[in-house]
Amino acid sequence: MKKIITTPNAPAPIGPYNQAILSGNTLYTSGQIAINPETNELVLNDIETETKQVMHNIKAVLEAANMAFEHVVKSSIFISNMDDFAKINAVYGSFFDEATAPARETVQVARLPKNVNVEISVIAVK
Fold first, then answer.
1. What sections of the protein cross the membrane (predicted)?
2. What CATH architecture is 2-125?
């Protein structure tokens, strides 16, 4: 059985999907981009600030499911420019304990929703 997870502390979906689905003990989040949920505006000042907003949005969704970054087992990062990898990785890494960090892939894509530079989704297990 699946449970819809939603929180006002992360951006509302911009299409026919939910912020996350909890199935048993596994949480599947939709990709998060750098929309500030309080203003509904994109945060695109620089790649570090953008990535930090994405991670805060993921944190809000995890918390809505009574989980935290320590529960994340897999993440997917989509970026528009691989030259930003090191900066994105530094911000992303600050949210995890390196010794227990999740499995991950990082893929450069041609374009992301709303022309953002980074989108991240996670799978978490409690």
1. none
2. 2-Layer Sandwich (3.30)
